[in-house]
Specification:
67 residues; alpha+beta; three-stranded antiparallel beta sheet; globular
């Protein structure tokens, strides 16, 4: 299991442009049982993803697909 802590590196307006694609990415990973839980940080500076994957290299490949 892995805990992924995401931190935004650009303005929130840029993040919001990709939000729908990101949500679709999360849904796909839930359907594949790669992710167990996720959510925004408060304040909104990034997010957290819990992954049930056992291999870090596999997780990195999946995270690279996130818009």
């Amino acid at each position: 299991m892995f805990i992924v802590s995401l931190t935004y590196k650009c303005p929130i307006e840029e993040i919001d442009k990709h939000l729908n694609a990101h949500v679709n990415f999360l849904k796909e990973q839930y359907e594949k049982n790669n992710f167990l839980a996720s959510g925004r940080k408060i304040p909104r500076t990034g997010g957290i993803i819990l992954s049930g994957l056992k291999n870090l290299d596999d997780l990195k490949l999946i995270l690279a697909l996130d818009p």
